[in-house]
Putative ribosomal protein L22
Amino acid sequence: MTKIHYTKNPDNSTKSCKARGSDLRVHFKNTHEAAMALRNMPLRRAQRFLENVKEQKEIVPFLRYNGGVGRKAQCKQWNTTQGRWPKKSAEFLLDLLK
């Protein structure tokens, strides 16, 4: 296994964390979009967001890998039109946060 190098260290390391997974049984593009939606969220808010995604109360906006992704009304809160509720990716990210 190769050694992992991060390109930038956080400004305040006490308020941030690093995590990664390998050989995961989830779709990369769905997980990427879900992880990008979690950026700059506090931990409790991120956990609540992922629980809401599993229950389809909140949506993950698809900004980069959005070919063939349907338009949903819930995406208005993110100022975009395309999104999904990737349950399997949300479960994995929730376990990663715990």
